[in-house]
């Protein structure tokens, strides 16, 4: 019969944790069989011992930062080089916008190169020696604060930012240029309006056409106290630009007693009490359509802005910022109402360039 042995009788003493060789920086507490593994011995990188290798890494980092600058310039140039409606075929993506493709590629390269350059710089040229620092209380003592400042200065020195001027200058250039991409992106919020907001389809001699009957209006077609909606002659619903043009040129016509009109210019621009104002509310551009015959007030249904059509369409109530623009009208030799020109000011909501 075989004899029984204890569980530790076949284990040699050199395999016990207390007898194992400790790693670099490890400490063994007396009576504690578990060894703190510590940190392995530090291994120097090739850049730490070979200046030529360090120079190569410096050139790589500088190349990445320079490439980022070129990509940012390419991003900005894309807005000029590619029309917004140009479509190209790119395999395997298919037909896509040339502008969107160029903006995505150039901005992606610019941001990637800054990140890759910073990572390569940190991994090859900055100090990589591990340091152990015990945790401390949240409220740091003066000695700890001094140590933090000293560590920061030491880190700045070890980063070689002052000595590696090529890296420093190209990094500053890349970081300074890449925000321009965001500034240029503001242009993509929409095409620049130019003076389009200041002009509509109304011109001198354009007849006022009833939107419902599509017939030119005569003064006798408009009764006192009535509200009529009109559009410029020649603007048809099947036109490609109809929606864009009617959004600016929509007109409402009201006939008042001439004695009820308080504003002199409104009276001069009217015909026998017939006044014409823009139908587009000056708050957010809703169509004004609710008319109070007794008070000569017109109400915007969206946010209750109220305008007095007997007093230059001035704002009586609500968030609208300025009166409805008036259209100067008269009667031609054939007896039809016609415009004497365009609106004297832009129609619709206010914008920052508006005086």
UniProtKB/TrEMBL annotation:
CDD domains: Rieske. GO terms for molecular function: 2 iron, 2 sulfur cluster binding; metal ion binding; monooxygenase activity; oxidoreductase activity, acting on paired donors, with incorporation or reduction of molecular oxygen. Residues 1-12 have a biased composition (Acidic residues). The chain crosses the membrane at residues 60-84, 96-121, 166-186. The lineage of its organism: Bacteria, Bacillati, Actinomycetota, Actinomycetes, Kitasatosporales. PANTHER family: CYTOCHROME B-C1 COMPLEX SUBUNIT RIESKE, MITOCHONDRIAL (PTHR10134). Belongs to the Rieske iron-sulfur protein family. The cytochrome bc1 complex is composed of a cytochrome b (QcrB), the Rieske iron-sulfur protein (QcrA) and a diheme cytochrome c (QcrC) subunit. Keywords: 2Fe-2S, Cell membrane, Disulfide bond, Electron transport, Iron, Iron-sulfur, Membrane, Metal-binding, Oxidoreductase, Respiratory chain, Transmembrane, Transmembrane helix, Transport. InterPro entries: QcrA_N (IPR045603), Rieske_2Fe-2S (IPR017941), Rieske_2Fe-2S_sf (IPR036922), Rieske_Fe-S_prot (IPR014349), Rieske_Fe-S_prot_C (IPR005805). One of its GO terms (cellular component) is plasma membrane. Residues 1-43 are annotated as: Disordered. This is Cytochrome bc1 complex Rieske iron-sulfur subunit.
């Amino acid at each position: 019969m075989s004899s029984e042995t204890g569980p530790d009788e076949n284990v040699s003493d050199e395999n016990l944790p207390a007898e194992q060789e400790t790693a670099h920086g490890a400490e063994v507490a007396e009576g504690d069989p578990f060894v703190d593994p510590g940190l392995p011995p530090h291994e120097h990188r090739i850049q730490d011992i070979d200046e030529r290798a360090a120079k190569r890494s410096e050139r790589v980092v500088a190349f990445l930062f320079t490439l980022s600058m070129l990509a940012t310039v390419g991003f900005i140039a894309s807005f000029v080089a590619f029309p917004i409606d140009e479509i190209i075929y790119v395999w395997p993506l298919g037909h896509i916008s040339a502008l969107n493709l160029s903006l995505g590629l150039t901005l992606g390269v610019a941001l990637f190169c800054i990140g890759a350059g910073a990572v390569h710089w940190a991994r090859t040229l900055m100090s990589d020696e591990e340091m152990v620092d015990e945790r401390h209380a949240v409220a740091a003592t003066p000695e700890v604060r001094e140590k933090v400042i000293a560590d920061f200065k030491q880190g700045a020195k070890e980063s070689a930012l002052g000595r590696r001027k090529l890296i420093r200058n190209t990094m500053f250039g890349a970081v300074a240029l890449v925000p321009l991409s965001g500034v240029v992106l503001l242009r993509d919020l929409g095409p620049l309006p130019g003076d389009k907001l200041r002009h509509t389809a109304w011109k001198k001699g354009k007849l006022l056409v009833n939107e419902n009957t599509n017939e030119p209006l005569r003064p006798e077609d408009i009764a006192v106290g009535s509200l009529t909606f009109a559009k410029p002659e020649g603007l048809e619903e099947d036109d490609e630009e109809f929606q864009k043009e009617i959004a600016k040129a929509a007109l409402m016509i009201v006939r008042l007693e001439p004695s009820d009109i308080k504003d002199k210019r409104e009276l001069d621009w009217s015909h026998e009490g017939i006044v014409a104002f823009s139908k587009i509310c000056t708050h957010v551009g809703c169509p004004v359509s609710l008319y109070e015959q007794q008070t000569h007030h017109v109400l915007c249904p969206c946010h209750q802005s109220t305008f007095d059509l007997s007093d230059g369409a001035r704002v009586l109530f609500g968030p609208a910022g300025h009166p409805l623009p008036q259209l100067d009208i008269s009667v031609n030799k054939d007896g039809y109402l016609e415009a004497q020109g365009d609106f004297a000011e832009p129609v619709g909501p206010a914008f920052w360039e508006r005086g």
